[in-house]
Amino acid sequence: MGVKKPRVLITGGAGFLGSHVARRLLDAGCDVIVLDFFHQYIYPLAPSFLENMQYRHEVLLNGAQVIRGNINNKEDLRRQIIKAEPSIIIHLAALPLANVALWQTEEAFDSIVYATFNLADIVGDFTFIKKFVYVSSSMIYGDFETIPMPEDGRKNPKDVYGSMKLTGEILVKSLCRKHDVPYAIIRPSAIYGPTDNNRRVLQIFVENALTNKPLEVTNPQATFLDFTYVEDAAEGISLAVLSDKADNQEFNVTRGEGRSLQDAIDVLQKIFGQLEVRTKPENAKFRPSRGALDVSKAKKLLGYKPAHSLEEGLARYVDYVRRVNKSLLEEKNQKPQRLAKKTSPAR
Ligand SMILES: NC(=O)c1ccc[n+]([C@@H]2O[C@H](COP(=O)([O-])OP(=O)(O)OC[C@H]3O[C@@H](n4cnc5c(N)ncnc54)[C@H](O)[C@@H]3O)[C@@H](O)[C@H]2O)c1
């Protein structure tokens, strides 16, 4: 008799990170059910938007059952859970953008805090649910106290998004303890790669480089992030999903290296040649000072091995964008002369 395949319900599974997690778990032999309401947080008519959605649905989610549903609606959520009968829930559904959460605070509260409460509040009602995995964020730490930042370091979020993600963690821990359902908490950071549609910095850099538009940047030499290729983040989450060693634990799941925005620009200049870079002022009052996270716990307990340096990850991402985001190449061909006179040195 074969071992029963885990049935995994992924909230937010049609999103950027969720669709890669789904692919990884499908490839590992799990049954995957995605629950998502296909929301977008930025202008949806960017040329690459539909191409990325299509790639997610045709390639990454191929083999998953995709259900449309809003997890803020508790009755519908109950119905979907009863139908899906998952043994594991991965909760990714949330507004993922700190700069949007800062101004759309009620939307952020509904999406990050209320939705997490709604789900964690009822996990104990279903005996078939054996584990709850919450995807949090490195923004819960605020300014990093030490570098690399360990899981048990000071948590002092500086902005609305980080505060709400930390609230989500506290709710998950307390409600899962109450229901006696093991939980795992995952803290990724600065994820980039194929199908990102939320206009984070590396998506904008890559798309602008490809279409001969300038890269606009604030403080490139002094801004450090732990850029993480999306497949590495998905692998780390999947390991936590499938290992008992993750039960009731918190994990940083990142590349484990602090790299500057200037490093990212330098890597892209090696791929594309000289790029126009413009520095812009920005109010960074709510942006924490960050860098590398300590991923030794995930490596030791879960066997996590983030495989892509920034150089390797960006090369793969650019290859994807060239292959899949054909609309960008059409845009580029319509404006072949843009770069000619405007090129300025990157540093
Ligand atoms: N991308 C990153 O760099 C990063 C870093 C740290 C943490 N995270 C966390 O990872 C998770 C996923 O982020 P992402 O980058 O994939 O964002 P995304 O916007 O691509 O995906 C989020 C998905 O959640 C869905 N969703 C949101 N609210 C929902 C609801 N109420 N009901 C059903 N579906 C809902 C959306 O429709 C979307 O498909 C978020 O929780 C985010 O906070 C992301």
Description of the molecule:
- The protein has about 350 residues and is of the alpha/beta class.
- It has a domain of about 230 residues: Rossmann fold.
- The radius of gyration is 20 Å and the shape is globular.
- The chain has a 7-stranded parallel beta sheet, sandwiched between helices. A two-stranded parallel ribbon has the order 7-10.
- Helix 1 crosses helix 8.
- The C terminus is likely disordered.
- The chain is built from 12 helices and 13 strands.
- Nicotinamide-adenine-dinucleotide (NAD) binds next to helix 1 and helix 5.
Short overview:
By secondary structure, the protein is of the alpha/beta class. The chain has 12 helices and 13 strands.
Any key phrases for this structure?
alpha/beta, Rossmann fold, 12 helices, 13 strands, globular, binds nicotinamide-adenine-dinucleotide
> CATH class of the domain at 7-191 and 228-257 and 290-308, anyone?
Alpha Beta
Radius of gyration: 20 Å
The level of helicity is: 40-55%
Shape: globular
The side-by-side strand order for the widest beta sheet comes to 3-2-1-4-5-6-11
For the biggest sheet, the summary is: 7 strands, parallel
Low-pLDDT residue intervals, each spanning 5 or more residues: 336-347
Query: Cα distance, first to last residue?
Result: 63 Å
Helix/strand/pairing class, anyone?
A: alpha/beta
What average pLDDT do the residues reach?
Answer: 94
Counting copies of identical and different chains, the oligomeric state is single chain
Q: What do we call the CATH homologous superfamily of the domain at 7-191 and 228-257 and 290-308?
A: NAD(P)-binding Rossmann-like Domain
